[in-house]
Amino acid sequence: MTLEQLRIFVAVAEREHVTQASRDLNLTQSATSAAVAALEARYQTQLFDRIGRRIVLTDAGHVFLREARAVLARAAAAEVVLADLAGLKRGLLRLGASQTVANYWLPLFVHRFRSTFPGIELGVTIGNTEAVCEMVHERIADLGFIEGEVDDPALSIEPVADDELLLVVAPDHPWVRARPDPQRDFSTTRWVFRERGSGTRSIFEAALPALGVDPRTLDIALELPSNEAVRAAVEAGAGATVISRLVAEGSLKAGTLVAIDIDLPKRRFFVLRHKERYVTRAASEFRALVSRGPNRE
């Protein structure tokens, strides 16, 4: 059994299609079929049922798929360690980041890292806070950057930057003329939020009881998948929202949004890593770069 056979088996199993797996692996269909057939013949175990023009995993195939993935993951980890020993001349760094962090805070550090270590392939995957935690758990990301604290004993979480949340509305919103009373007014206006699982939304909802407001009483007119969509909807008069100053800054300067004077909690950006995963030199260097802040090279 070879790693190449395992790689081919996993590709076929995940797609349940030999031709598609062959195309994605840049192999001929005959080579792909032969690799799977060799495994089945060598261990006298049928891994796939051939049903018409389709193939589906047998029970044995499902069990073997879990083990094959685990072996390939360990092989990838070993390759990372060897690349690490090459002294940051080559390698891979995978980052996960929530939207505000990824779009407004992280790019400067990504640019600096790439300039310093051009041989390191660096990728960023964007998701909400919950999704980033899952990326770190599943080894999809070496480091995760999020907008709020999480309670997960498997993850190390450290603050890396401060951020400010603002309550913003369009210039013609009634709150521009008269500062709102949260207990009286928050439940009588429309709100525009990111989806549940967003760090910004979670922090605001957690702060509402201290303002005397039950989050369940809010009239949520829109739930949108990005900060930019939320900002545009509020600018168009769809309702009020709470977003990062980083997101709102340009619109505040342009006069298309107005910040309302409400006492909101400060928040921090955090870096996540898995406590039991090997920390590569690339990840350590990126963490050190971030810790120096945006004003220091």
The count of DSSP E runs of length 2 or more, i.e. the number of strands, is: 12
- As residue ranges, the low-confidence spans are none
- Radius of gyration equals 25 Å
User: How many H/I helical runs?
Assistant: 13
Order of helices and strands: HHHEEHEHHEHEEEHHEHEHEHEEH
What is the overall pLDDT average?
Answer: 90
Anisotropy-based shape: elongated
End-to-end span in angstroms? 48 Å
What is the SS-derived class? Answer: alpha/beta
How do the strands of the widest beta sheet line up side by side? 4-3-5-12-6
- Estimate percent helicity: 40-55%
Strand content: 15-25%
Largest sheet: 5 strands, mixed
Describe the model:
The chain has 297 residues and is of the alpha/beta class. The chain has 13 helices and twelve strands. Strand 1 (48-51) and strand 2 form a beta hairpin. Helix 1 (3-15) crosses helix 3, helix 1 (3-15) crosses helix 4 (59-85) and helix 6 crosses helix 13. The longest helix is centred in the first third of the chain and has 27 residues, at 59-85.
